Amino acid sequence: MDVGPRGRARDRQSPPTTAFCGLLLALAVVFVTLGSWQVQRLFWKIDLIARVEARIHAKPVAVPSKTEWSGLSAEKDEYRRVTATGEFMHNHQVLVQAVTELGPGFWVITPMFLPDRTIVMINRGFVPGDRRAAVAHIAHDRIPVANVTGLLRMPEPGGAFLRDNDPAAGRWYSRDVAAIADDQGLHNVAPYFVDADATPNWGGLPIGGLTVVSFRNSHLAYAATWYLLAIMCGGGIYVVCRQRPV
Questions:
Q1: Tens digit of pLDDT for each residue in 21-32?
Q2: What domain range includes position 235?
Q3: pTM of the predicted model as reported, rounded to 2 decimal places
Q4: Phi and psi for 194 in degrees, rounded to 5?
């Protein structure tokens, strides 16, 4: 039986049209899945921010001891408010390049020798670039034992600003605790460092309390984008199905 030109046109168009609709449907499923994943990430990030805020404003506790080092993680320990008492090892001090709200300069990283004979790196604060020479002679010669309160931070291995640390040349671009300890010949060093708070140092330098606690939270925008793409795919399926010959 001859179904006529219209029927033959419909038969010729059906397979590619069906395949196209199937592709749109598959994409819609993928986009919905990605949107749902971003919603999960959104709630995770909100919870993380709340937990970090609680740590920052909590009463300070002693820095983690050696028995606790293996259990430390960024998710549950970073930005914990801690305190340390010990002797600064100024002959092992290094300067790490930094850009802060005060402009370019350096973080002053000084190892602290604790009573339990372990060492923790202390980021004592910021020094402007034109004062880097002076900071080596400020304050530390007069204070045999120091008390530091600040935020526990996880190390920054490798480098920063697209540049690798160059210990041989004394150029540091990230606060890589392990690399600094190795370069300075230090052992029994904690796998974290402490950002000192804004308690004034003798002589006014370095300047502490400049830690920026910021979390990028774009998950809601990403979720909305994925869901919008899914809706567009659904709209495409609707339009194609309406235009198919009958």
A1: 888 888 889 888
A2: 4-52+218-243
A3: 0.69
A4: -120, 125
